[in-house]
Specification:
The longest helix is centred in the middle third of the chain and has 44 residues. Helix 15 runs antiparallel to helix 16, helix 34 runs antiparallel to helix 35 and helix 35 runs parallel beside helix 37. The protein is extended. By secondary structure, it is mainly alpha-helical. It comes from Vombatus ursinus.
């Protein structure tokens, strides 16, 4: 009955631990021997949730201490000791000990590490990046793993799926996953590691420490299988302190990369430093073995085995070298006897046939007027491929394409289907393949010129497919004009199928068809198809402008900016007047600088050198190939004999020209004069060389010679601006004022000076003349894209008048939206000059409104920080002139407030 009493009179339990309220009592605590239960009671009492009882808490603590003195609940927190916790003497002793310990640690650190931080300042630029930080390989693998894990189906599988389960296939997947997981993780670094480390200001001990550290990094890279990075770090170690171990290790890494020559050089360097180094002998023997120098390899291995007869690796390499030597000896001896005679006979016969290929082309003794010309071209310039056919096969079609190439990008995309190609079938499709039709057309003085290009007997089935191809091509052109690009692609493809079997005679037309189909692909957004067709067109007709331009646009669209830059540069070598290429070069250059930094040029592919014949054909307009006569054939043959051709001469010409340009930059005009004269000995038809040499003559005050060079340049290129300008300077120098006024339309003869000192302003004058040749037609832009295109064209020419027209027809409120985020320093300066020189006198209110809204453009504040002192001075002058013209629309105070926004 007494046991049931507590349950009858129960007062409930605590919230924490669910302890009965009756246990919170002195009697229960004194009798209880369960330490865990007492600890829970103490926690509840200390929390105060059932009230605060100090005596009961103290009683509970004493009971726990008597049962378990080491209980964790009896521990009490103590605050951290401070200076006030100790006596003055104790604290001084503690403080002194700490300070002495800190000073000793600093001394030890200075002995181990570098003594000063400014020693590292010169090394900061040479420190390599952390290996594997920017590696795209790991991220790609993680994505693959995620995709694979997502593709795996959840288990359990249903019965229908087990019926389709293929055990062999699943096992092969597991094996493939294992192989992929076990492949070495070789990271390809996008950052370039410098191979040389600056050692200025370092002691010998520091150099040894740094060289050892770089060598250890190379060892880590070698162990992980990244041999290229290992070579880089070994090279860095050698640049600090050349050691035998570093050279030896780099030789081993070069062997792994199969760079046998580099490995040989490193081994020889080791043997210079340490003549008896066994590792160098073994690694040099390995390199000799892979270079098939078996005797030298055997000699090195014998040296190793003389010192270490039990060297297993040397014995193994020796056996392999002896086997290779035995295999090579019996096979090489008899082959050299029989094959040398055969090779010599074939080469001799080919040379003889090559020399006479032009004379025996049609299988008869007759030589038509066109045969020797083509024969000489093919023998003198074999490396140009189909360039000869390009310039001798087509007349007006090529000429019209050359003229169209100066227009904007959209016209360049559709240019291959316009003018000469649409109006009538081209000569090669409609006439040259059809032999009897061509002979009827050219029955005059040049009647036999076209017949020479085909074989002796005229094939009968050729006219039908050629005529059909011409019709298909014209149909494709019409479809392209109507915007039916998919149907045009089909027509061009059918025309190409018709011409596939005609051989080299249809190369020109196939190139045009590929170029036209590429334009269709580009309009449809199929950039890969466009690039592929442009590549084929350029294989048939190298250095053709339209395929190059379309391929460049396609590359730029898919963000392959480096390839696009190379194509645009090649186009400008052929014709530097193509505005679309110039604009794109400027745009891509900024993108590449942002993407690759100052070293963006080093990451470009080499820009191909354009042959002289391509540039000469552009200057001549291709008209010389339309109707060759006997006199023209003789004259061209004489010109070809006198002109130096071939890749070697082109390289020499380019080298001499570059050297001359460098001399001009340095002010060494006499040396530049000699270089340009040597260029003219190689090719006397290059207009640029005459204008450059004329500049040198002007700098040397030899005005008569400068005038002669300018006359010669104008004979080659009638509208050359630099030639007009420099001839005007020469006339001024000769005191012939009347002649100096002969300038191209839009020129500025009043800018010409007669002193040699002021002749240095020539390039600026020529730029102003260039702007007068062709005025831009300014129309009101409908959107930001059109505004940007017009502004780019104006900015390229630095045409203030055109810029003023653009600002006059543009609402000032729309200016920030039209500019978007394209406000640059040169654009801002052009705006200021145009407003000041062309709009301020006529409409000062419009000038104020433009300046007001220009300050609201996106990059305005950033652009202000980049302005030079001269640009700020011009802006200040504009505001001063504007404040003098205040009216009802704005006051001088408004101008001053706006001036503060421009930070003037």
């Amino acid at each position: 009955m007494t046991d049931q009493t507590p349950s009858l009179w129960s007062f409930g339990t605590t919230k924490t631990f669910q302890i009965p309220i009756e246990h919170l009592d002195f009697k229960f605590v004194e009798k209880c021997s369960d330490v865990k239960h007492l600890e829970k009671i103490l926690v509840v009492l200390r929390s105060g949730e059932e009230g605060f009882y100090p005596e009961l808490i103290e009683c509970c603590e004493k009971r726990i201490q008597s049962l378990c003195p080491e209980s964790r609940i009896l521990r009490k927190e103590k605050p951290a000791a401070t200076a006030s916790s100790f006596t003055r003497e104790e604290w001084e002793k503690i403080d002194g000990d700490i300070k002495s310990w800190v000073s000793e640690i600093k001394k030890e650190d200075s002995k181990v590490h570098f003594h000063e931080m400014d020693t590292f300042q010169e090394l900061e630029g040479h420190l390599p990046p952390v290996r594997g930080t920017n590696s795209p390989l790991n991220t790609g693998k993680e994505k693959d793993n995620k995709s694979r894990s997502s593709q795996k189906k959840k288990v359990p599988r249903d019965y229908a799926e087990w019926d389709k389960f293929d055990v062999e296939k699943e096992c092969s997947k597991i094996d493939e996953d294992y192989k992929e997981n076990t492949t070495p993780n070789i990271s390809s670094h996008s950052l370039k590691i410098e191979k040389n480390i600056g050692t200025i200001g370092l002691s010998d001990k520091e150099k040894d420490f740094l060289a050892t550290r770089e060598k250890e990094k190379g060892n880590e890279a070698f162990s992980s299988g990244d041999y290229e990075e290992a070579v880089t770090y070994y090279t860095r170690s050698i640049s600090v302190s050349p050691t035998v171990a570093a050279y030896n290790n780099r030789a081993q890494a070069e062997i792994k990369l199969k760079n046998w020559n580099n490995a040989l050089q490193d081994c020889e360097k080791v043997l210079e430093l340490e003549p008896g180094n066994l590792k160098a002998f073994m690694r040099r023997a390995t390199a000799y073995k892979h270079q098939n120098k078996y005797h030298e390899a055997i000699e090195d291995l014998k040296k190793v085995l003389n010192i270490e007869p039990d060297n297993v690796i040397a014995k193994k390499i020796m056996s392999e070298v002896e086997k290779d030597l035995n295999k090579s000896q019996p096979e090489s001896a008899p082959q050299t006897k029989g094959k040398r005679m055969v090779i010599q006979e074939i080469e001799d016969s080919e040379d003889e046939d090559g020399k006479r290929s032009g004379e025996h082309e049609n299988g008869s003794g007759d030589k038509k007027t066109d045969v020797p010309l083509r024969g000489e071209q093919r023998s003198d310039q074999p490396e140009m491929g189909n360039v000869q056919n390009k310039f001798t096969g087509k007349g007006n079609g090529k000429k019209s394409r050359g003229k169209e190439a100066h227009k904007c990008r959209d016209r360049a995309l559709s240019g291959g289907t316009s003018q000469g190609q649409n109006s009538k079938p081209s000569p090669r499709l409609g006439g040259e393949v059809n032999g009897h039709l061509e002979s009827d057309k050219t029955a005059g003085g040049s009647g036999g010129a076209k017949e020479v290009s085909r074989p002796g007997p005229a094939p009968s089935p050729l006219p039908l497919p050629a005529a059909t191809a011409a019709d298909l091509k014209n149909q494709g052109n019409e479809l392209f004009k109507n915007g039916q690009f998919g149907e045009a692609v089909l027509k061009y493809s059918q025309a190409m199928e018709k011409l596939q079997g005609l051989g080299s005679e249809s190369a020109d037309e196939l190139s045009v068809l590929y170029s036209n189909r590429a334009a269709c692909y580009l309009k449809e957004g199929n950039c890969s198809g466009c690039i592929e067709d442009c590549n084929r067109a350029l294989e048939l007709q190298p250095f053709s402008i339209k395929p190059l331009l379309r391929r460049a646009v396609a590359y730029e669209t898919v963000e392959q900016y480096r390839k696009a830059y190379v194509d645009y540069k090649t186009i400008l070598q052929i014709d530097n007047r193509i505005q679309a290429a110039n604009d794109s070069i400027n745009r891509i250059t900024r993108t590449l600088i942002d993407q690759d930094g100052p070293t963006w040029r080093e990451k470009l592919s080499p820009i191909p050198a354009v042959p002289f014949s391509v540039q000469l054909h552009r200057l001549d307009g291709g008209s010389a190939a339309v109707q060759p006569t006997q006199d023209e054939t003789t004259e061209s043959g004489h010109h070809q004999k006198s002109q130096v051709t071939g890749k070697k001469h082109e390289d020499m010409f380019a080298t001499l020209k570059e050297e001359g340009n460098e001399f001009v930059k340095k002010g060494k005009y006499k040396e530049a004069l000699d270089k340009y004269s040597e260029c003219l000995e190689i090719n006397h038809s290059e207009c640029v060389i005459y204008t450059n040499r004329a500049l040198c003559y002007l700098k040397l005050c030899q005005f008569e010679e400068a005038k002669q060079d300018c006359d010669r340049a104008l004979e080659i290129e009638e509208a050359n601006v630099k030639a007009f300008y420099r001839r005007g300077l020469a006339h001024k120098g000769l005191k012939v004022v009347e002649s100096s006024e002969e300038q191209p339309e839009g020129g500025s003869p009043e800018n010409v000076s007669i002193t040699c000192h002021d002749l240095e302003k020539g390039p600026a004058g020529s730029g102003s003349l260039a702007m007068g040749l062709e005025k831009l037609h300014i129309s009101k832009p409908a959107n930001a894209y059109e505004f940007g295109q017009i502004l780019n064209a104006i900015n390229t020419r630095k045409d203030e008048e055109a810029c003023a027209k653009l600002l006059a027809i543009t609402d000032p409120k729309d200016l920030p939206a039209l500019l978007s985020n394209k406000l640059e320093g040169d654009t801002f300066l052009l705006f200021i000059q145009s407003l000041k020189n062309h709009l301020l006198d006529n409409d000062p209110e419009l000038v104020y409104q433009h300046l007001l809204h220009l300050s609201k453009a996106e990059r305005f504040m950033m652009m202000l920080t980049l302005l030079s002192k001269g640009q700020k001075e011009q802006t200040r002058q504009l505001f001063e002139a504007l404040s003098d013209k205040s009216n009802h629309a704005f006051t001088a105070e408004d101008v001053q407030n706006l001036k503060k926004h421009y930070e003037l």
